[in-house]
Amino acid sequence: MIQEQGSFAVGGAISYTPGTYSNNAPTSAGQSIHGDHLYAFYQVPQAPKSLPIVMLHGAYQSARSWETTADGREGFQNIFLRRHFPVYLVDQPRRGRAGNSTVGTTIEPTPYDQLFFDQFRLGIWPNYFDNVQFDRTPETLDQFFRSVVPNTGPYDAGVISDAMSALFAKIGPAILFTHSQGGGPGWLTAIKSPNVKAIVAFEPGSGFIFPAGELPAAMPSAAGTLSPEAVSLADFEKLTRVPVIIYYGDNFPAEPTTERGQDNWRVRLAMARLWVDAINKHGGDARLVHLPQIGIRGNTHFLMSDLNNVQIADHVSQFLAEKKLD
Amino acid sequence: MIQEQGSFAVGGAISYTPGTYSNNAPTSAGQSIHGDHLYAFYQVPQAPKSLPIVMLHGAYQSARSWETTADGREGFQNIFLRRHFPVYLVDQPRRGRAGNSTVGTTIEPTPYDQLFFDQFRLGIWPNYFDNVQFDRTPETLDQFFRSVVPNTGPYDAGVISDAMSALFAKIGPAILFTHSQGGGPGWLTAIKSPNVKAIVAFEPGSGFIFPAGELPAAMPSAAGTLSPEAVSLADFEKLTRVPVIIYYGDNFPAEPTTERGQDNWRVRLAMARLWVDAINKHGGDARLVHLPQIGIRGNTHFLMSDLNNVQIADHVSQFLAEKKLD
């Protein structure tokens, strides 16, 4: 039961080429290009709750992350619509339907299927983890791989969070869900916009920001070194004004390992714990849920589309209820 | 009132790189990439009609073409949902959320705003046509320009129509709406799939196909020469099995002109007339509606989002009713 739905672009830049435009012999001269905006598709259900949910995808993904799951079940878009939240799905600047960029790029058809299988913790290619919350039919894996989309311009957390901030300015107070790489721009959005009323971060993977002078040590892993990033204390403290919950799934190694796909997440979980501690030390309200510690097993990197995604949504709903955000 | 909604990828290819995949030191070796599929978002309204409508966008566009208009009104997605058609919105292969391509490309941030203003017949930059069915506020023009998205791989009507054919195989009999450049892949889709039960083409701009040996002369214009393309007689005759209606808007020049943006469409309209004649000569059921000739004035290249888009939708509904497709 949808009361209203639609889409729009918001934020972004305009790049102008000097010169005089010639209508009948056009070159770049005197022309402009609009780019670096985000694209949002929104739906308002009947009897809507007052705070919408804005969902921001991760790397190599689009808003499709939140739609139908790879095995054809309902994703968080429909689940939270059924729970009466207005839902805004974002394609971030330079991705998907927000593809126009003011900065160019080259797209190579990089074969990453097997790397993604490992890094998104479906298993260790070609074997699934025994307890994995992912349907093992070939059709599901095919759909999963086909959710990948390339960047159409350089990845820039500043550009993304500027457009996200413009979105929150347009729609007013709302809850922000982020996935993976979206975590970093998510924190920056909450710094830039007072309309971000809570953050639910699913497996944030980059952009862990700390106050300058309080940075923890970088963390080496089999997938490279994860370094914290510095922001001003004043900006960091803006993150202490809203409740934050962070979720991580299963099959994280307890100790350093040579398994690249898993070790990548060991350090992210460790860094996220330090981040939560720093937020709370500065008077904030952050919480980290490592799902296996509350008995929820087998989750991949895509918690919101895993086989138990209704259970994950239930946990999120409970958090939103506790914080009186629903 | 939506009964069901969701999204999926369909069609496409898998490209394999020879070698052995190394989980912990991954390179391209032994990996694959899934690409060249299309992405579809579908909604089924309450009390649905039996034939869904599939909407395929044009050049530089995505499924957003059919969603909210640049000035914030409902587009053909919502209008035809309200008329109880299930609606499938497509991002074609190598565009938008179907961005993964098996062939690489370079994206330059080409400044085309002013060229688009002319070529999409909003007016002659910087002046709107006097009668234009386009809201003249700067915010609307900003949204219009931000609907542009780049190709993420080479444009290939064969790749697009293959994926579209796979879509029609998956969903069954349906009506196909195309816009602009989508016209060409649209004809090819109807040749490839017997599930295309009708075609409604809004300002088809390329891919005018004729039986080999029956090609009309190429048509020079101020925007370049438009050449017809040859297909086998057997393939062409497949297009005679389904009703086809083609719409063109206003501000076409009657005679050749140096105005590039308008002259581009003079030859397309002329070629479309020859195409309709050829279809009908071969026993088909094609009709061309040049809107000014039935008293509908001021339409741009984007008929489905113009200020009078409900009037355009009414005409389409009447066509579908006449052909007993609703």
UniProtKB/TrEMBL annotation, chains A, B:
Entries under CDD domains matching the protein: Esterase_713_like-3 (cd12810)
Pfam family, one: Abhydrolase_6
A single GO molecular function term of this UniProt record: hydrolase activity
InterPro entries recorded: AB_hydrolase_1, AB_hydrolase_fold, Carboxylesterase_BioH
Domain AB hydrolase-1: 53-273
Keywords: Hydrolase
SUPFAM superfamilies: alpha/beta-Hydrolases
Alphabetical list of PANTHER family matching this protein: AB HYDROLASE-1 DOMAIN-CONTAINING PROTEIN, HYDROLASE ALPHA/BETA FOLD FAMILY
Protein name per its UniProtKB record: Alpha/beta hydrolase
Species of the source: Azospirillum thiophilum
